[in-house]
């Protein structure tokens, strides 16, 4: 669908896109815990909530790259927060939460992995850190990692602070 939408936009003579909002989302009804959810339902939830935005991004990236101020917006959910996982487990948001956590990771990837183009897509002027700085800090963190200091944690390599997930 995303590739066909891209073809339709291109056929209409549109040469760039300034803003993409990935807002599709679904949660299985009734919600179930992951140990009882049908795997087909989990797969479908991932197709819509995680792979859908990735397909949309892949299809429209060439037109976003041509924008002077490209922006990518992902509509997510607190259910994707690993820090708040227990809060949302009360609603059995297993498949939905997993899919939104993956979508959130992808959204961060769009900003950081692509350098300045990715930063512009996220609404920034340029990437907040160079590849060299990120690589150096990552190597330092790995070299100094211990079970006590880093095991089971997500660490911001630039600041050294633990990231709540």
UniProtKB/TrEMBL annotation:
The keyword Oxidoreductase applies. Pfam families: adh_short. Keywords: NADP, Oxidoreductase. GO terms for molecular function: oxidoreductase activity. It comes from the Eukaryota. One of its GO terms (cellular component) is cytoplasm. Transmembrane segments: none annotated. The keyword Flavoprotein does not apply. Belongs to the short-chain dehydrogenases/reductases (SDR) family. This is Aflatoxin biosynthesis ketoreductase nor-1.
């Amino acid at each position: 669908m995303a590739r066909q939408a891209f073809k339709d936009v291109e056929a209409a003579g549109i040469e760039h896109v300034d803003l993409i909002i990935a807002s599709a989302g679904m949660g299985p009804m009734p919600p179930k815990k992951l140990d009882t959810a049908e795997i087909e339902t989990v797969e479908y939830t991932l197709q819509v909530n995680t792979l859908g935005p990735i397909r949309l991004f892949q299809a429209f990236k060439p037109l976003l790259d041509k924008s002077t101020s490209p922006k990518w917006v992902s509509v997510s959910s607190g259910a994707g927060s690993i820090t708040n996982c227990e809060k949302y487990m009360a609603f059995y948001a297993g498949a939905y939460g997993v899919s939104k956590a993956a979508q959130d990771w992808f959204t961060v990837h769009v900003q950081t992995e692509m350098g300045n183009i990715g930063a512009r897509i996220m609404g920034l002027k340029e990437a907040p850190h160079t590849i060299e700085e990120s690589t150096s800090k990552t190597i330092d963190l790995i070299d100094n990692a211990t079970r006590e200091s880093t095991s089971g944690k997500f660490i911001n390599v630039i600041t050294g602070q633990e990231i709540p997930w």
